[in-house]
């Protein structure tokens, strides 16, 4: 029985092959349209011929094209296919109709239909003519891997999806946009909200389908991910609503003009040219210009950057541009009119015309800006209060009588930014030899001197670290002049300068200083925050703890320690080591790698102040690191680095 069935089956197969060989109509599998391109110059219907030796179907097509029929049988003769397009009240458009028999290759027909608006512009990146998504992708294609655009650009599109919604905690968002009629996408990565500010509770949230214009720097991250540079872009408009901000929407660097004098200020292009070749090695080692004047219009304001938002610091941070140009200049923590701290008066806003007086630098070799604490607002929309350009010009040229007082009389005096006091006493306790912080004692009491300089710099000026040249030690008797200050309820002699001193019997500088504030010093033995003498984790924690809630240090500092533990994301219980997605990491460091006297390193960037990339060395517990960046007292409770404003300077001795 088994043999009979086998023979019958074999006979059937042989008959089948014999029939195929004798079938003159047998053809190899193929599909081919009679034309490659169809242009709908007039009318809404056209036909094409399709040759298919197998059953076929339409594999894909644009939404605005109808195909009839959408499938058919095999045939040795051409089949007529009708293409119908919908009316086009927009820009010219193209699409592709793909036919398939299920085997490669498919056959494609390109379809073109003009629109009533004519050809679509890819944009030029200005506010008046933003890039489309395809336009910005083409522009980024001209940049090298990880090379940031030299100026802000504007990009227009529709939100396709949202990966990180705006929140009050971070204030920024990440989402993907596309052209309304396109398939290419572009990533907007951690961009701020309308007005170039953090999102606040109650603000309109973004959603899929929203029409947006985004302004900021763009980058080809790792050479394969076009996106906005992290925290360097913002939402310029949302469904037609805007709060301003931006870079002026003009074009290019502009033409340098001006000589930098009060009568003939630099424009922004000239100021950028003046710092282009200045060097920057560290926050303590950099070149700067002499005091110059710079004129421009405020294009955007840093987060909490107005004078009114700075609280007791009384300064502001914002960008200015030339009319019709994109390139900006960063006015970093400048004082108010009259070269003094802001207490009241007209605050700044986007669009204001300003003249700035001060020293300029090229921060990190790529950011033209003013030197912190060494520049001020000379005029605001034509209004000026003057201001001295010399070392003691913190009071707008005003002079006051210096009052000679005892320590107890100084303590009883009112806080003042104008009245100077002369005190004489013994240098006592611990000394910070970098900034000149110590206790001054006389027969009436003791007061803390928060910084002493060799010469008068003026109220609000940054400490020039000249104290060490004075040779003052514990036990010496010193005469100085300073201002009555108050920091967190503690009386201090502030912005003091040297008059004279005599040697005493004191024994050197042991112990340390519990200083605070933005120019800090740190405890002796806890470091001074420089690259050559980094803070210990305990020293960094002490400095950050002394700051007001959510305030941050004025300058970058260095901290050295060992990773004691890596923070865990509670949401998914994953260690927050470096990842390609975010490029930063969160961990704790201590002096010896134990969990004693830890300092929190929050979302810090990698070596070279960049995002971590696949293949880079990963961090682990026990690694010895030096961190460089700004410190903050988060919500007044947690001393830590400022998110994305710090980076690993060295990892187990390796630097970039």
Set out the fold topology.
Elements (H helix, E strand, L loop, with lengths): L1 H21 L8 E3 L3 E3 L5 E8 L3 E5 L4 E4 L2 E2 L6 E7 L7 E8 L6 E7 L19 H8 L12 E12 L8 E6 L6 E7 L19 E11 L3 E14 L2 E2 L25 H8 L16 E10 L14 E6 L6 E7 L18 E11 L3 E14 L2 E2 L17 E3 L2 H6 L7 E13 L4 E6 L2 E9 L23 E11 L2 E13 L34 H9 L11 E10 L1 E2 L4 E2 L9 E6 L8 E6 L19 E11 L3 E14 L2 E2 L1
Parallel strand pairs: 2-9, 22-23, 25-27
Antiparallel strand pairs: 1-3, 3-7, 4-6, 4-8, 5-7, 8-9, 10-11, 10-13, 11-12, 13-14, 14-15, 16-17, 16-19, 17-18, 19-20, 20-21, 23-24, 23-26, 24-25, 26-27, 28-31, 28-33, 29-30, 31-32, 33-34, 34-35
Describe this structure in words.
- The protein is mainly β and 656 residues long.
- It folds into 5 domains: 31-113, Immunoglobulin-like (Sandwich); 133-242, OB fold (Dihydrolipoamide Acetyltransferase, E2P) (Beta Barrel), CATH 2.40.50.140; 268-395, OB fold (Dihydrolipoamide Acetyltransferase, E2P) (Beta Barrel), CATH 2.40.50; 402-502, OB fold (Dihydrolipoamide Acetyltransferase, E2P); 537-655, Nucleic acid-binding proteins (OB fold (Dihydrolipoamide Acetyltransferase, E2P), Beta Barrel), CATH 2.40.50.140.
- It contains 5 helices and 35 strands.
- The strands form 7 sheets. Strands 12-11-10-13-14-15 form a 6-stranded antiparallel sheet, with helices on one face. Strands 18-17-16-19-20-21 form a 6-stranded antiparallel sheet, with helices on one face.
- Strand 10 and strand 11 (173-178) form a beta hairpin.
- The model is unreliable at 1-24, 246-252, 387-399 and 505-524 (pLDDT under 50).
